[in-house]
Amino acid sequence: MSTGSAIGIVETSSLAKGYQVADAVMKRANVKMVVNRTICPGKYMVLIGGDVDAVSASIEAGIEAGAHTVVDHFVIPNVHPDVFPAISGVAKMPELKALGIIEGFSVASIIEAADAAIKAAEVELISIHLAMAIGGKAIVTFTGEVGAVESAVEAGAEVVEKRGLLVEKVIIPSPRKEILSELI
Fold first, then answer.
1. pTM for this entry
2. Which of 31, 45, 153, 160 sits at 20 to 30 Å (Cα–Cα) from 139?
3. Which domains are present in the chain?
4. For 19, left (φ over 0), alpha (ψ -120 to 50), or beta?
C-alpha cells in the first residue's frame, strides 16, 4: 500500500468523536485513509497516510476535533514499508526464529513500537494486532535472531513505556510454531 512517506493516527475513547475526527483529518489536507473504524472496547481509530506535512496538519486537526476524548496519537515520518502489510494482516509468515512480542494499551503506541523495532534491528514483522477481541489492547510480533529480537523489543517497548502504556514485552528463543496459530 503506497500512502506516502508518513502515517498518523488519532485514537479516541468516543465513537461519536471518532467520526468527527475522521471527517476533520480528511478535510484538513490531501491524505489517504488507511484504517477508519471502531476498536474494542468502544474506542475509535483513524489511521491516515500521505506526505509528512499533510499528515501532520491532518492529525493536528484530528486532535483538535477529538479534544478530551483523544487516547493517543502520532505522526511517523518515513514509516518503515513493512508496517503497512503487518497492520492489514497480509504479511507473509517469515521463517520463525526467536519471537518478540510487545503488548500495549493503545493502538497508536504499538504501531509506533513496530516501526521503532523494525528500524532498530534486523527483524521481520509477523503481525500488528489492533484492539479487536483483545480488550482494546494492541500487540506486535516479529521474528529474527535472538540478539536482533532483543534489540527490537527494547527499542519498541521503550516507545510504549514512555507513554505509560506498556503491558508486557516478551522474547521467546526457538518458539514452537503451534503457539502462533492465532497469528497465522
1. 0.77
2. 31
3. 6-77 (3.30.70.1710), 83-180 (3.30.70.1710)
4. alpha
